Amino acid sequence: MGKHDKKTGKGRLDKFYRLAKEQGYRARSAFKLVHLNRKYDLLSKSKCVIDLCAAPGGWLQVAEKYMPKGSLIIGVDLNPIKPLPHVITFVSDITTPHCRQTLRSHMHDWKADLVLHDGAPNVGSAWVQDAFTQNELVLQSLRLATEFLIKGGSFVTKVFRSQDYNSLMWVFGQLFKTVEATKPPSSRNVSAEIFVVCRDFIAPKHIDPKFLDPKHVFKDVTSLPTSIIEPESSSSGPATQASTSTAAAAAARLAANSHAHSNVFAPEKKRRHREGYAEGNYTNFFTCKAEDFVKGPDPVLVLGNMNKVEFVSDEEKAWLKSRHTTPEIVANFEDLKVLGKGDFKALMKWRLAIRLETGLDVKADPTADLTEDVVVEEMDQEEQITDELKKLHEAKVTKQKREKKRANEKKARELLKLQLNMTAPEDLENNDLALKGEEEIFDLEEGENEARRHDGSGLKTLTDIVREADGMDESSSSESEEESDEEILDSDEERERKTAALEGELDGLYENYRERMQERDAKWKVKQDRMKDKNFDAWHGIKENGSDDEDGAGRGQGEDGEGDDDSEGGWDVLASKKARIGEADSDSDTDSDSDVEMDQEEAVAKPKKKAVKFEKAGKERVSRPSGAAGNLVTSLQETEKRAQMSRQAQLWFDQSVFKDIGDLAALDGDDEEEEEEDEDEEELVETEEEGDEDDVSEVDDDVEMDEDSGGTSTLDDDGDDDFEIVPQEPEDDGTAWDVDDEDQDEVKKKIIKDKGLLTAEAVTLATALVNRQVTASQLVDQGFNRLSGHNKDGLPSWFLDDETKYYKPNIPITKEAVDALRDKQRALDARPIKKVAEAKARKKFKTMQRMEKAKKKADGVMESEEMGDGEKARQVRRMLAKAAKGKEKAKDKKVVVAKGIHKGVKGRPKGVKGKYKIVDARMRKEVRALKRIKNANKKR
Ligand SMILES: C[S@@+](CC[C@H](N)C(=O)[O-])C[C@H]1O[C@@H](n2cnc3c(N)ncnc32)[C@H](O)[C@@H]1O
User: Fold this and answer.
1) Which segments constitute the Ribosomal RNA methyltransferase FtsJ domain (predicted)?
2) The complex's ipTM?
């Protein structure tokens, strides 16, 4: 059988392959015969076996093993079979006369008890063709079997299930009393092969050659003669019976046998023959009376199940004479199995006509003729089809809706994640969604309508978001209603439940997010507190408290009456307007942290109307907002830190954008009436002060805004210095980024961007103030806008947190402000690195020391009376120049061997530039020698 694929992969792992190896069988197929033999006991009683298609000899081995000793075992194959003990083998094609002759030569006049056939043509082409070739081979082997089998002998063959299977089985049934198809366990389920065990060979005397001719057998089994087999003898009994039985009956019997096994394999078993006979059913030739069709309750069933409708009774014959009974109708009744849809319709029409004619049916409408009745029938079918189509359409629509709904839910989830900064916009599958998430869903400036729609708060609830994403907004409400009717998932209850679940899930996610943030950033909590205090509550608080409280009385409570609006809020903006440079509250301790932790009472006591007053204190310009109304003057007992802050404030205002400010106190167009601001957000950046003073001067002019406070300075909550960089590109809004999932660089960039934006706002406002385009009061008034009021009741924490970040007025920034900051950043970037700065400072310091010394010396020179004025001036100049220059490093001595020196040559030796000193090598040696001697003498 040649190379077999069982040598590789799957085959190698096969249990029977391993068993065959273990037991010394040449092929795993040996076990098929083992199993067949176990079931039918074929071998033990056989004394002569012919194995057709026997290579490599597995079956021969089994036969040799289970057959009685001395049995004749003959194997034939296209391929040579390695010699086996007690087995005769030869190479031949079983379809050729040569094979038959050779067999005969080996058999002499013996008859075989058993003929085996496990042949398989070389497969590889299409299945049908292979199956056909296979079954052709089966028929050839059967031909040999009929020639060499003894009466009562057995024939075992492999058959491939195909449309010819039943034909083969029918033929087997004609030749053997018992025919059984079986699938041994060793035969792979995936294989379409089945083994047919034919026992008790009838041994007919003469077999019509057509009976074993593939052309006839496989072409049309019904065309086979029903009595082609002549019994070998009249005494053959059952054989005669078998031979006289109709082919249809035999095929039906055998088909019934095979059905017992048909579930094991048969890829084509599901194939349906929609026209003509269904496979295996051709022997079930059923007839019925025309009466059953006409009068029966289910004419369709009759047409479907019967082969023929017969007109037997007088009544039925009378129907044949009806004008409705056309020759075509009669022909149709002759063979129902070959009819098409139109034929069936015609028969149904005929039935109705006959029924009407015979009075079995009464016309509903007397005017309606037969044709109309027929149309009713057609309509029924059409209705059925329409109905089916409708159902399909509905199912499709429902499916689409469900998919849409799922997609929308997914979108909603992604949007919410996006809003929680749990995902980056580019991570979202749908970028539009990301944009939507940023621009639309939480668009807090969406407008009054939107605000009204959402309880007047201007905020969308989660349900709204889900509803929106679900396409459940007003525009699609009708569709939503329809959907809710159709799908239980869309019911309000379900929606609420899902929304609640989603909210719960999101709350959980948000909590995780917060935890992660906390873990990641030790200062996060403090920042959050400060955020809450400053940017949200306080922001709204100041506006709620009103701005026209000119008397500087304590700030009132907010509209919600909570009274917890403790920070300057609106000052967030106002302070930005005035560059937010101030010092700590004069009457409180100046620790920056204390600003953050300001308690409620203190906050309430703050003035409602906020303003800034800048005062000069000595050289320092001081922003000195004060929480207490009367505390308008900078305290002289300010701490050193505060003094430093003031200095930094001065540096801040030394920037070009403020250069036009003459007196900062005059900033406010509403004159000195303005009240002072509390210090809540007034922190100054403590700059790096490393290196000497000169270095400090280089970096000290850096005042930054705190990202959290929307324009406050950046003294850390823990009091650490926090030097920050003003961004290069402040116009880029990168506020939507989440620091949590980014690496540190990204975080820094984000902070820079954020700060840049806010700082630009501050500078813009400050510039506007400076240029008197706007007054402080106007700015404060502008702070009262539609974003002021906010009912926070019942809102989820993630939303409030998000609001804290984003629910702010959009303060415009000018190009000039951005340019100013950019210039500043460039200046900062141009600074030398720390070590260089330190080195420079050291150098400078030493120079100053030298200059100091030189100055003293110069004083001495000037006091001298020995020198004239001109001489003194020259001396002093030289000394100062020397001091300024500093000590030059002693250059490495260069030794040059000059020729002729020892010969008394005078003047500059050749090749020597600059100062030079002539030394005598011999003299040097002598000097050293003398030193050595001297030392030696000392030791003695
Ligand atoms: C599955 S193998 C038989 C295995 C065999 N029963 C055993 O156990 O070793 C099928 C064999 O049929 C042979 N065969 C196919 N067509 C043939 C033909 N026309 N004449 C002889 N042998 C043929 C192939 O050469 C192949 O060896």
Assistant:
1) 25-201
2) 0.99
